[in-house]
Amino acid sequence: MINKIVPVYVLTGFLGSGKTTLLNRLLEDAKDRGWKPAILLNEVGDVNVEGQLIEKDIPMAELLGGCICCTSRGDLGLELVQLVQDNDPDVIWIESTGIAQPLEIMEGVTEASLYAKLELKNVVTVVDSRHLLDKLRIGSGKTFKLMKEQIRAGNIIVLNKSDLVQADDLTELQSALKDWNPNALIVTATRSEIDPSLIYERLVSIESTTAEHVHDHNCSHGSCEHGHHDHETLHDHVNAVTYYFKGSVDSVQFESFLQKLPDDIYRAKGIVSFSDAASLFLFQYAYRESDFIRITPQKPVNNVAVFIGEGFSRSELISQLELLDNQA
């Protein structure tokens, strides 16, 4: 089993906003950094035109004929796991179709982290300045609603094609973005040209993404500052935390832990092994209800739990998980 945790970045935004142009810039930057990138491209149609623009030596998976957030979400997880197993990438970029809802994609990525060591890092939303300005002036419609959802899900918003609007209009757009997503980093751009470090600045160096490596570099004189977790906030309203357990945990303590989760955590799932049972269990948690299913995987799997919610304390959750982990 590949041991490192692979960071995953989601690139979203409405049709024609400049996502593929940005993706190509980010792929070049990743190669300059010495990373091995992989990508997953989604198209509603049966032909992936944008895929023809990607260099042939970059591992790529395609989801065609459907949107990731609805008909293809299950396939998303399978493709991500396959990308990791076949190519051992250092970073994965997902470019969604322009009509996708990012929160559903986030759900698909966290689902895949149950079977491969993946970490959802950032959601980058690319916005066409002139298109958004037109929709903002109308103030209604399905496209306008979807664009707002995509903007609210991003923790980095690229206000692209800013050269096509007047300065006053650009100020109006920036004000609207701050109203819809006050915690996001807003970057203005022309032709999707931005500093990639703005996206990667929260990324722990790829060389230290395994739990064992983190342990080695953060422990000294018998004390350890960090546990075997790896997490990243997506934005202050929607958080996804992924925790990889060191080993088995006590079943009674784990069930008690789930029942005491705050209301702000509305979804959790994972694969756990219990110290007082001889099997692996797939667990599902939603709105105070939890379910455990005994499983017999055909391949090695991780002991991992994923939590999704709004506004909960990540540090407090991690502390509780570490306590649970260390008591086993």
Automatic annotation (TrEMBL):
<keyword id="KW-0143">Chaperone</keyword>
<dbReference type="Pfam" id="PF02492">
    <property type="entry name" value="cobW"/>
</dbReference>
<feature type="domain" description="CobW/HypB/UreG nucleotide-binding">
    <location>
        <begin position="7"/>
        <end position="187"/>
    </location>
</feature>
<feature type="domain" description="CobW C-terminal">
    <location>
        <begin position="239"/>
        <end position="322"/>
    </location>
</feature>
<dbReference type="GO" id="GO:0000166">
    <property type="term" value="F:nucleotide binding"/>
</dbReference>
<dbReference type="Pfam" id="PF07683">
    <property type="entry name" value="CobW_C"/>
</dbReference>
<dbReference type="InterPro" id="IPR051316">
    <property type="entry name" value="Zinc-reg_GTPase_activator"/>
</dbReference>
<keyword id="KW-0547">Nucleotide-binding</keyword>
<comment type="similarity">
    <text>Belongs to the SIMIBI class G3E GTPase family. ZNG1 subfamily.</text>
</comment>
<protein>
    <submittedName>
        <fullName>GTP-binding protein</fullName>
    </submittedName>
</protein>
<dbReference type="InterPro" id="IPR011629">
    <property type="entry name" value="CobW-like_C"/>
</dbReference>
<dbReference type="InterPro" id="IPR003495">
    <property type="entry name" value="CobW/HypB/UreG_nucleotide-bd"/>
</dbReference>
<dbReference type="InterPro" id="IPR036627">
    <property type="entry name" value="CobW-likC_sf"/>
</dbReference>
<dbReference type="GO" id="GO:0005737">
    <property type="term" value="C:cytoplasm"/>
</dbReference>
<keyword id="KW-0378">Hydrolase</keyword>
<dbReference type="GO" id="GO:0016787">
    <property type="term" value="F:hydrolase activity"/>
</dbReference>
<dbReference type="InterPro" id="IPR027417">
    <property type="entry name" value="P-loop_NTPase"/>
</dbReference>
